[in-house]
Amino acid sequence: MNSRQNPPATPILTTRLPAVGTTVFTRMSTLAAEHGAVNLGQGFPDFACEPKLVDMVAEAMRAGFNQYPMMTGAPVLRQAIVAKIAAHYGHLYDANAEITVTAGATQALTTAILCAVHPGDEVIVIEPAYDSYLPAIELAGGVAVRVQMEVGASGYSVPWDKVQAAVNGNTRMIVINTPHNPTGTVLRAADMEALADIVRGSNVLILSDEVYEHMVYDGQRHESICRYPELAARSFVVSSFGKTYHVTGWKIGYVAAPAALMVEFRKVHQYNVFSINTPTQHGIASYMADPAPYQELPAFYQRKRDIFRNGLQGSRFELLPADGTYFQCVRYGAISDMPEAQFAEWLTTEVKVAAIPVSAFYQQGKESGIVRFCFAKKDDTLALALQRLASI
Ligand SMILES: Cc1ncc(COP(=O)(O)O)c(C=O)c1O
After folding, report:
1. CATH 3.90.1150.10 residue spans of the chain
2. Closest atom of ligand 1 to CA, residue 241
3. Among residues 163, 121, 164, which one has the least CA distance to residue 146?
4. What is residue 204's predicted lDDT score, i.e. its pLDDT?
5. How far apart are CA 328 and CA 308, in angstroms?
6. Is residue 253 within 6 Å of ligand 1 at its C-beta?
7. According to the model, what pLDDT value does residue 2 have?
8. Does the beta carbon of 43 sit less than 6 angstroms from any atom of ligand 1?
9. Which stretches of the chain drop beneath a pLDDT of 50?
10. CA within 20 to 30 Å of 348's CA: 69, 135, 360, 384, which one?
11. What is the pTM of this model?
């Protein structure tokens, strides 16, 4: 029988995620490649990590660290993470019971949601939001309750009164992200105090996405949940080595949480990935002995942010504040009244610089006339992009 003419039937699947299609990041990157555009869309560096880090991972492989590590992560790496959090934020986690190494932050976020959220539980998500939160909530059978950030002349802020109003007896979790993708907003002490006031005395958990923890500028400090014992006692705190060490393709991160939460996290983690590749864990643990790479990161990225912002001064783009992350949001109302996705496509195909529409970070695609650029790029890449953007 010719199987091309009469192929065997594949059973039909009912999707678990009806709203999910190709992401805007994939679409814009494809479009950027097709049109020879400078890709300031997707958030990853176009420069290499320090060669020393690669050497340390290679050394770990040669030293024989090539078999399954512990399910929770290599002890040396968990200890290095504990030491870093203690030195930066003054909170001492237990390396055995309260830290788990994950396959990037994405897996940590999804696992935290899957282990904590039961069908019908509500999870408050602040929009615009990183795109993995909502599908994870849906897979868990939870209900996402969306609260939108406000955007004014001084940039985006979280309306805590609206978050407070969204909390009820079904609320299981609030997801926060600081520094924030896509807006570059950095939560301040007053934000953390407002959050503490909302959850005090409740059973609400916090999932704190802090993957850009080392990218905070102008002498401000990162207000990690770990600085607030009252909040840390009810929180999963997530970070990513990919972001911190310029190795997004390694997909390695971690979660820190009180032991009682971590027990449940590990039950899901164990049967989802079990463990993360061994040599990378050992290589990163050795590299972390020197705090310089993450201590120097704010200055490194602040310089790139300033090159990018200075290059757009005098252009028809209006710059929003960029206090953290490696993203710069701009208003383009003086150039066009196109919807954001259409404007981003036009920028990519005609101006040959790819950007991401901020509307893509809202479940229902709110239009604000704002697009996001990523400035984690070589100076030459930024210069070429700026030359094109300034000419509009
Ligand atoms: C806010 C936020 N959280 C999580 C992630 C995912 O991090 P990882 O690559 O470590 O999974 C990203 C990556 O872009 C992000 O921007």
Report:
1. 24-43+295-390
2. 10
3. 163
4. 98
5. 8
6. yes
7. 57
8. yes
9. none
10. 135
11. 0.97
Whether 242 is in the pocket of ligand 1, judged by its Cβ within 6 Å, is yes
Decide: 211 in ligand 1 pocket, CB within 6 A: yes
Cα of 45 to ligand 1 centre, how many Å?
13
Mutate to test the pocket of ligand 1, among 240, 244, 250 (most ligand atoms within 8 A of CB): 240
177: its two tokens: 């992200």
Name the architecture of domain 24-43+295-390: Alpha-Beta Complex (3.90)
What residues form DSSP beta bridges with 199? none
Closest ligand 1 atom to 209 CA: 3
Burial class (CB in 10 A: 0-12, 13-18, 19+), 302: middle
Q: Is 72 in the pocket of ligand 1 (CB under 6 A)?
A: no
β-strand pairing of 327-331 with 370-374 = antiparallel
Please tell me the predicted confidence (pLDDT) of residue 90.
98
Separation of CA 77 from chain center: 21
Is the shortest distance between the CB of 359 and ligand 1 below 6 Å? no
Sign of the alpha-carbon torsion through 194, 200, 206, 209: positive
**Numbered ranges of CATH 3.40.640.10 in the chain:** 51-290
